[in-house]
């Protein structure tokens, strides 16, 4: 038995912020942003929090799967921008959708969160503990981005994607995860300062900082390596892979990965143009877009690949 994606759902806030809009608040241009990243616009939340976006994506995934909230055994939310330290975003989603029988918790694996969540569910399914799970990737990164820093604020967007997983005969074939904590400084968002009565400082919220070139180097090395490794150890031919569904960080990263894998760009669908980098939400947002366009057929072999802060990376080979 293995995890099968039974339904996908996605939700983004309605406010669209274009590159030209950003050029009014920092020194940048549509040309600079789109030529270096592929991004033209992103959604920014003004009213809804991470758990609101997550709950709506979850409702849509449940509807697509034909699963009732009370049938869920488990909810895992991958996020690096939760609304609260506690309760977890997953518990907030549980309450919003009425998944009364589910255990719920968040994981922090940045842009790899959706893949890590899928891996965790697979473990529970393989052990026979749970049969039906909901995984969600949701972010409101707009609240941790430094809107005075043009090198990061142009990259990110808010959104959520979810998948209902069921323990069935076919689905996930193999998966892997990895982390390299020594490179953590490359992409960082502190949430703690030593603000207490002894230091006399007030607690401060941190903003995201990024060494873009270090992240780029990490991604174009680790992503093809992990994909090659999955393909090799499952004796699968690249010709048998219908699509590579990569975390939507940057068009140039996706192109570099395609070159290293010697695979054509039409096997690498993208939605970064519309949504920017939505971190852990990007893979389910892309899957949802592909389902709506009828791009995925039963039996298609696809590879999902996430990578991000930590640094972390993970990949899944599955049959649709
Ligand atoms: N508009 C105009 N100019 C800018 C902007 C901007 N938004 N941002 C930076 N610049 C300037 C810099 O100040 C610099 O100017 P200088 O030469 O006068 O000092 C110049 O552009 C070049 O800056 P670099 O940082 O060297 O730009 P680079 O070509 O490396 O592109 C980018 C930056 C797009 C971030 C690139 O490094 C990259 O793609 N990195 C990958 C990081 C990434 O995708 N992160 C996403 C989050 S991580 C994740 O999801 C896994």
The set of bound ligands, ions and cofactors reads: acetyl coenzyme *A
What's the domain count?
A: 2
The major β-sheet equals: 5 strands, mixed
Measure the end-to-end span.
15 Å
Number of strands: 13
Secondary structure: elements and pairs:
Blueprint: E1 2-11, E2 16-18, H1 19-22, H2 30-37, E3 41-43, H3 50-65, E4 74-78, H4 89-97, E5 103-107, H5 113-126, E6 132-139, H6 150-153, E7 159-168, E8 172-179, E9 187-189, E10 208-210, H7 212-233, E11 241-246, H8 251-261, H9 272-275, H10 282-292, E12 301-308, E13 312-319
Parallel strand pairs: 4-5, 4-6, 11-12
Antiparallel strand pairs: 1-7, 2-3, 6-7, 8-13, 9-10, 12-13
Helix pairs in contact: 3-4, 7-8
The chain binds acetyl coenzyme *A.
What is shown here, in short?
The chain is of the alpha/beta class and 320 residues long.
């Amino acid at each position: 038995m293995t995890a099968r994606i039974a339904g996908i759902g996605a939700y983004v806030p309605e406010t669209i912020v274009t590159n030209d809009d950003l050029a009014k608040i920092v020194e940048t241009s549509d040309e600079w942003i789109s030529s270096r990243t592929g991004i033209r616009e992103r959604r920014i939340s003004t009213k809804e929090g991470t758990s609101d976006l997550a709950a709506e994506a979850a409702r849509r995934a449940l509807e697509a799967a034909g699963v009732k909230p009370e049938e869920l055994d488990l909810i895992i939310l991958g996020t690096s921008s939760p609304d609260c330290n506690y309760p977890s975003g997953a518990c907030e989603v549980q309450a919003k959708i009425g998944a009364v029988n589910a255990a719920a918790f968040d994981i922090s694996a940045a842009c790899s969160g959706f893949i890590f969540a899928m891996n965790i569910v697979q473990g529970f399914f393989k052990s026979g503990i749970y049969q039906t799970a909901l995984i969600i990737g949701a972010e409101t990164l707009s609240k941790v981005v430094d809107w005075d820093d043009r090198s990061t604020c142009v990259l990110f967007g808010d959104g959520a994607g979810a998948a209902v997983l069921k323990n069935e005969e076919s689905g996930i074939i193999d998966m892997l995860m990895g982390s390299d904590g020594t490179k953590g400084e490359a992409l960082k968002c502190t949430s703690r300062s030593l603000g207490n009565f002894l230091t006399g400082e007030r607690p401060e919220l941190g903003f995201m900082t990024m060494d873009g070139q270090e992240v780029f180097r990490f991604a174009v090395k680790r992503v093809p390596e992990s994909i090659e490794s999955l393909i090799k150890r499952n004796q699968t031919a690249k010709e048998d892979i219908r699509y590579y569904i990569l975390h939507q960080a940057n068009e140039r990263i996706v192109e570099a990965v395609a070159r290293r894998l010697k695979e054509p760009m039409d096997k690498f669908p993208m939605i970064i143009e519309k949504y920017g980098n939505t971190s852990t939400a990007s893979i389910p947002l892309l899957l949802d877009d592909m389902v709506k366009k009828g791009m995925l057929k039963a039996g298609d072999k696809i590879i999902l690949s996430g990578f991000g802060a930590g640094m972390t990376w993970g990949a899944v080979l599955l049959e649709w």
